[in-house]
UniProtKB/TrEMBL annotation:
Keywords: Membrane, Transmembrane, Transmembrane helix. This is Uncharacterized protein. It comes from Limimaricola soesokkakensis. The chain crosses the membrane at residues 16-36.
Length: 40
């Protein structure tokens, strides 16, 4: 089971990095969107 999981992570490493960057950018947009009206 652990070996299968390791193989799956190794095969999809590029997409995992892209998905993590996408999730991080969405969180940043959310925080900026919620913070910005407080400045105005």
């Amino acid at each position: 089971m652990a070996q299968e999981l390791k193989l799956a992570v190794n095969r999809s490493r590029d997409t995992l990095v892209a998905d993590a960057l996408g999730a991080a950018s969405l969180m940043i947009l959310l925080f900026v969107g919620l913070w910005l009206p407080g400045l105005i």
